[in-house]
Amino acid sequence: MTEIRPLSPPVGATGDALVIFTPSGKRGRFPIGTPVLTAARQLGVDLDSVCGGRGICSKCQVTPQFGEFPKHGVSVSADALSPWNAVEERYDRIRGLPEGRRLGCQARIEGDIVIDVPPESQVHRQVVRKAASEREIVMDPATHLHVVEVAEPDMHEPRGDLERLADALKEQWGVERVTAPLPVLAKLQQALRKGEWQATVALWRGDEGPAKVLDIWPGFHEGRIYGLAIDLGSTTIAAHLTDLRNGTVKASAGVMNPQIRFGEDLMSRVSYAMMNPGGDREMTAAVRTAIDGLAQGLAAEAGIAARDILEIVFVCNPVMHHLLLGIDPVELGQAPFALATSASMSLEARDLGLGQVNEAAQVYVLPLIAGHVGADAAAVALSERPDQSEDLVLTVDVGTNAEILLGDRSRVLACSSPTGPAFEGAQISSGQRAAPGAIERVEIDPATKEPRFRVIGSPLWSDEAGFAESIPGTGVTGICGSGIIEVVAEMRLAGLLDAGGLIGSAEQTGTPRCEPQGRTNSYLLWDGTAQGGPRISVTQGDIRAIQLAKSALYAGARLLMDEMGVDHVDRVTLAGAFGAHISPKHAMVLGMIPDVPIDKVQSAGNAAGTGARIALCSVAARREVEQLVSRITKIETAIEPRFQEHFVAANAIPHATDPFPNLLAEVTLPHVAFNAGGGEGRRRRGR
Amino acid sequence: MTEIRPLSPPVGATGDALVIFTPSGKRGRFPIGTPVLTAARQLGVDLDSVCGGRGICSKCQVTPQFGEFPKHGVSVSADALSPWNAVEERYDRIRGLPEGRRLGCQARIEGDIVIDVPPESQVHRQVVRKAASEREIVMDPATHLHVVEVAEPDMHEPRGDLERLADALKEQWGVERVTAPLPVLAKLQQALRKGEWQATVALWRGDEGPAKVLDIWPGFHEGRIYGLAIDLGSTTIAAHLTDLRNGTVKASAGVMNPQIRFGEDLMSRVSYAMMNPGGDREMTAAVRTAIDGLAQGLAAEAGIAARDILEIVFVCNPVMHHLLLGIDPVELGQAPFALATSASMSLEARDLGLGQVNEAAQVYVLPLIAGHVGADAAAVALSERPDQSEDLVLTVDVGTNAEILLGDRSRVLACSSPTGPAFEGAQISSGQRAAPGAIERVEIDPATKEPRFRVIGSPLWSDEAGFAESIPGTGVTGICGSGIIEVVAEMRLAGLLDAGGLIGSAEQTGTPRCEPQGRTNSYLLWDGTAQGGPRISVTQGDIRAIQLAKSALYAGARLLMDEMGVDHVDRVTLAGAFGAHISPKHAMVLGMIPDVPIDKVQSAGNAAGTGARIALCSVAARREVEQLVSRITKIETAIEPRFQEHFVAANAIPHATDPFPNLLAEVTLPHVAFNAGGGEGRRRRGR
User: Fold this and answer.
1) What are the φ/ψ torsions at residue B219 (nearest 5 degrees)?
2) Is pLDDT at A27 greater than 50 in this prediction?
3) Is B162 close to A326, i.e. CB distance below 8 A?
4) Largest CA distance in chain A
5) Are A398 and A419 in contact (CB under 8 A)?
6) Which of A153, A162, A634 lies closest to B158 in CB terms?
7) pLDDT tens digits, B237-272
8) Which of A49, A397, A423, A569 has the fewest CB atoms within 10 Å around its CB?
9) Which domains occur in chain B, in start order?
10) Is the complex ipTM more than 0.90?
């Protein structure tokens, strides 16, 4: 009985009925005739309503339960709810009410009852499920739809329509202060009159300021409102069009960042801005145009109007952040890598010149962690919450820059490491982006030194029957990032590569696939010339590029471990679109990441994108990530002498000086040493 | 001794010196060596400083007083202040320090002293002096310049430049929360580095939200910041370019409202919007372009950069308000005359597409009183403050619509009355706008019925020698609004017009200047045909137009008096550019305004423009006008049957049914009655 709220009189004292809501278990006593929605609201049960109980939105659907409920100590008779009324009849006739459902605002309590609130009727339903961290993200978007009845104008009390709308929102929805931007003011009067003084407003409450009307529709607006979660990367702009009422992703798309024509990596774009007056503005315009196109494309794909996109959340690295906002990134190209601003930002889409989405659309940009550690890393932190981890977790978002987070409940450290674009297939002789035809998985037989591989777009291995026919389009075209990692690791495992990274000759390795190339050797992975395709080899240069990239990544992780005062981590999370495709075993053979049991290496998929979605769906999450970022300890790799030491020491695959040799239980790295004709290998090995 | 602040120990207890500031009279004891600025701040003395005591802005100049001051009970020796220091020497060498002046931040207290703060060193100096109401407006602008020293970036604490600027503003100027719009973020980093981490910011604190950085300059910014006070009228857009540091008007200009091509008066513009799809947007674009041009022109005239205009305040009638903001004014053309919004607004200039002023310039729009009583009337109320008047004051802003305020400390009423454009010279046969060549003053000899007049641009009366040569340009061109009022009143006084407004014939009046025109007569004021000029007559139609206009004005005033339950007012204030030129005597003869002693009729000049300037110079005044408007009782003339009654009854000049015949002590209106050939005069008289 202690669950009964004090406001409800005890059983039997009045004619009140006991009402129990599931799954929350909230219960209370209410006078006969109380609408279910009213009871739910008084008990704080999470039952949705857009129309505020006017019987028009149907968001408050509930499933009454009848019969005996010993668990709840209640018996529910068939007449415990009022019969269907005209509103429900009409709704069912026009739209159809699922079997067993009632409208919470119409059904009235007539006796003790158990009422189930189905997931789709919950406002704060869980949308982003994080299996790894066992954490649930519940809907708490900044923008909600509300139906309001607005008082008609009165010449004797000549306040404006907006002021009367504000009164209605205060009275009917408890909204204290309301503003409306000019585009909404421009359509306000017509909407109110067309809807005969009933309207649906999209109300944004994203900060502590007044609530903002983002849009208004006459009467009850049947439509939905949407948001874009955008992961603005140096290479790719990925966006998820998300239903702001339930968090559902309606469409996702990625486009190339058009800034690539100004520079492949971030630093070359900074250089472009430095060398070309107005170059930053060119790049800003290019990326904004691309975002506009992405918004339009996603809206078309989902069959919605781009004008119904009311919010955009951005995550991006610091250079992209500044270029998006129209800030010259020149300071990010040199120590001390000073950001123009590091805090999160709330803007309007038109501030960014975005013209496809709603005129009043709101933008939220996640905070930056440091000059080299961006809002994308903050988004990874929001998605993965290392600060809530019991064990010590290393989170690595692999890209042109790797963002690295190390931490647990006590402390989180962050740094960025300049891995370069090798992991993305750039600067690799046969490298290419992950696309159909790209080699993504590789195995090399340690005995025969013969390779087999799979390409994106085909389910078959290259030595399986029908492989050639199974490849889409142009056949085998190159090697993508995950393929590069696997082939280099496999070459090391097969004894084709020594610990210093030198490729052996045909004589040294015993396979004609090792071919001389200048003063070094290369390994022939695939010869497609007979079919008019490419000859795909791994060159000594490719190995060096991968060594540089993996050394940078490893050195960053080690630097954080030094700072944390630990010599091992409990688990590793690989984030990023690329991270999701990396084979943990090969990454460890290569020495990209510190040694952990292989089952402790998880992929978080596009964690930055997930973080963006979480921030899009939850105002509370925005406040959380702002708090979290302020608590993260930032380590600047560029000024840490130990970074250079770790970087040099991490060059080998593996190397003896590393206290954490990347030796997996099931892997024995061969003891191989080659002496190539040229000096390059010797110089490296001589270190 | 009671004036000494408790924090200061008593005389003689320590070596502290007594410091007395004039004109405030504030006094206190301070340790020897205390800078004058520090003492002033601790005592709350109004002593300006932009640089915060760094010796670079020279705003804190004071004039120490030496000798005996029996009134203050103190004797000041010549060494009561520290000698000039190097900073003062340098400042005097480069810029010149006026005789007797010291820099308050450099001069240190060495003994008991009296220190005068000259007006130009006071922040809150009086700028708009309202002789009529004995009220002073003191500078309290939303935007101030502040010099700050910002911490250099630190890679170990990688917060953004904006965050470190915010820290500096908090620490050095007590500003709690700071934001910066994107245009400022785009120039922030360069400004801080160029100024070697010293910068001057223009900080806007116009509402309860965070302070906003509107602009930033490297080091100490020698320049000034400006605001525009704009009175956006149906016919004319008048703007005052104002120095935001001291309220000085640097330049003023008016341009024709380009919307005139869409309709001469407001209702025809509303009709244009109703009849032409997109017509409201055309008009919005036209007025915004004109404002841009005005800003540019004023900046050029004052020799400043338009980018240094950081604030704009608008006052305007409701239709202009909506058209400025991009809101279709269609609802204002029909009952219930519903405003889209009535509250004051804070916007950014770019929201209005204004591109000449600073990119981050802030806009404040005064609140509207009702659907027909605009922000211009609110501005008149702010300027005239009827709510602070001990006696009952009727304030009339005469234009195409007359805004009428009636009130005293107990209550203020407001209405608008559709006078039409006759008072502005439109719809008058020889009417014209007030411009050189327009007749503005008229006298008619009651004996000879001969007129004499003065035209704008000449100091001579028309019967004085050299008059013809003294007129600029094209000679006498027409009659402006004030001339029309005078000529009609003079015709009535000279017996050329009967109480019903009928012009007598030549026989009836005994002057050949009364000429037949159709079935009525006209009065020839000036025949310029011999010189190739116009023949300027007052026609019966002109008289009717003026009668309609004055009846509307009078009826509005009477409606408010009815509502207030009074049958007389204590004083009348005529506002508006036109109001300033009306002769009170003639206005009363005509019956435009209720009877009051003629010395109780005052001109407030362009009170709406003054109200705009006050709001530009004072944030407190913005809050005051918002409060004031919320307390004003609005009367809608269009739905008050008594308005029609008063309107009809007020047609005569004067007429018997009026309980307040417009009889001045010194004026005896002749008993005249004409019977014209046509029926029009008879019909009117028959009422």
Assistant:
1) 60, -150
2) yes
3) no
4) 101
5) yes
6) A634
7) 999 999 998 888 999 998 889 998 888 778 888 889
8) A49
9) 17-121 (3.10.20.30), 143-218 (3.10.20.880), 232-365 (3.30.420.480), 380-421+546-649 (3.30.420), 424-541 (no CATH)
10) no
